Amino acid sequence: MRVAGVMSGTSLDGIDVAIVEIRGRRIETPGFLSTPYPASIRQALLGPLDAAAISRLNFELGELYARAVLRAVRRFGSVELIGCHGQTIYHEGGRHTLQIGEAAVIAERTGIPVVSNFRTRDIAAGGQGAPLVPYVDYLLFRHQTRARIALNIGGIANLTWIPPSAAPEDVVAFDTGPGNMVIDALASEHTRGAQNYDRDGRIAASAKIDRRLLGELLEDRYYRRPPPKSAGREQYGAAFVTRLKQSGSSLPDVIATATGLTAATIAYGIAAVSVGAADLIVSGGGVHNRQLMAEISALVPSTKIYTSAEFGIDPDAKEAVAFAVLACETWRRRPSNLPSATGARRAVLLGSITP
Predict the structure, then answer these.
(1) Rounded distance, CA 66 to CA 10, Å?
(2) What is the number of alpha carbons within 13 Å of residue 343 lying toward its C-beta?
(3) Is the Cβ–Cβ distance between 148 and 135 less than 8 Å?
(4) pLDDT at 213 > cutoff 90
(5) Where does the chain show beta strands of DSSP type E?
(6) Position 11 pLDDT exceeds 80
(7) CATH number, span 134-311
(8) In 10 A of CB 123, how many CB atoms?
(9) Angstrom distance (rounded) from CA 14 to CA 344
(10) 95 vs 115, 123, 127, CA distance in Å?
(11) Distance between CA atoms of 278 and 304, rounded to whole angstroms?
(12) What's residue 41's pLDDT?
């Protein structure tokens, strides 16, 4: 089955579309395109958002997602199904969540069935509603003799622990804390909008970590709370960024500190699950931040680090690929959450189908 997976993440940087061919357990990605959000849409998503703004953006994003899919289809060929994660507006794991990007608009503009609204059924079944990608990590990276940790560094960082010869119930996954989103927000301010991220980690590499501030940040009990757990913009949005800027350190030093926080909390997460040698397979925009990757490597020196590209998955496309696979499972009426990862009472069919 050929499926278009559509993902727009916490960093609000744009729309990723992966064209995915799924044949049993074989997953191939013949095409991937990324489309930046218009500046006006990105600013609107940053809020504040009232009911009217959310309703309007729901339809506007549906139009943008449809155009992004059609652009990918024109370039890489037709698809039978679309899996669209949507843009998260609010997420409180285990209680409620809201993703927008109207599926009816996407289906009407493209003429292709859409699976959307993936997270709500898991929450209804007692889960966090996140992370959902571990199901796909399990399919892609499970190994008979080697332990694997799949780490995605998007706006939020999350990891999936896959023991050797793992059964689905053996998989452990959770959000470790901030990924790129805090760094991105600070870099945008530092460069006055010229960059929406710290290219190659150059700003952080040229500055110094505020060790006092980092120590205070690491006292947050979230980082030592056992899984299941999930995080989002609610924890690491504007208020968190303001707190860092009020520390008294220079903005470059704050960026270096935010980078150190992401690396340290990822290392905490790895230490919490890994009981021996494991392969660390990294995806997401964070793989391009050389300073961040160097800091992670220094904190987990006994772990062999790869990028998902070495396993045939474009690091930038990974989450879009995942929602294509999840959509396919839903279309085939197969549950695709992992209760061991989300805390749900049972495995459930995810998402809503708009024919």
Answers:
(1) 20
(2) 18
(3) no
(4) yes
(5) 2-7, 14-23, 26-36, 81-84, 87-92, 96-100, 114-116, 148-153, 156-162, 172-178, 279-283, 304-307, 352-354
(6) no
(7) 3.30.420.40
(8) 21
(9) 30
(10) 22, 7, 8
(11) 7
(12) 95
Domain with CATH 3.30.420.40 in the chain: 2-129+316-354, 134-311
Q: What is the pTM of this model?
A: 0.92
Q: With respect to CATH, is domain 2-129+316-354 assigned 1.10.1040.10? A: no
In 67-180, DSSP assigns E strands to 81-84, 87-92, 96-100, 114-116, 148-153, 156-162, 172-178
| pLDDT number for residue 232 | 87
Give ∠ CA 144-22-85 in degrees, rounded to 5: 100
Mean pLDDT of the chain: 95
Q: In the 8-state DSSP scheme, what is residue 222?
A: G
DSSP assignment of 93-121, as one string? TTTEEEEES-HHHHHHHH-S-EEE--HHH
State whether residue 287 is helix, strand or coil: helix
CA–CA distance, 319 with 132 (Å, rounded to integer): 10
d(CA 109, CA 126): 35
How many whole angstroms separate alpha carbon 111 and alpha carbon 198?
Answer: 39
* Separation between Cα atoms, residue 355 and residue 342, nearest integer Å: 28
169-198: pLDDT as tens digits: 999 999 999 999 999 999 999 999 899 899
Omega of the bond leading into 315 within 30 degrees of 0 (cis): no
- Residue 297, both tokens: 């490597």
266 token code pair: 């990822």
- DSSP-assigned states of every residue in 48-66: ---HHHHHHHHHHHHHHHH
Which amino acid type is present at position 334? R
Token output for 98: 């809201």
Question: Which two tokens mark 148?
Answer: 């694997």
pLDDT, residue 247, reads: 95
331 and 340 Cβ atoms separated by less than 8 Å? no
For 38, which DSSP code?
A: P
- Cβ distance 330 to 351 under 8 Å? yes
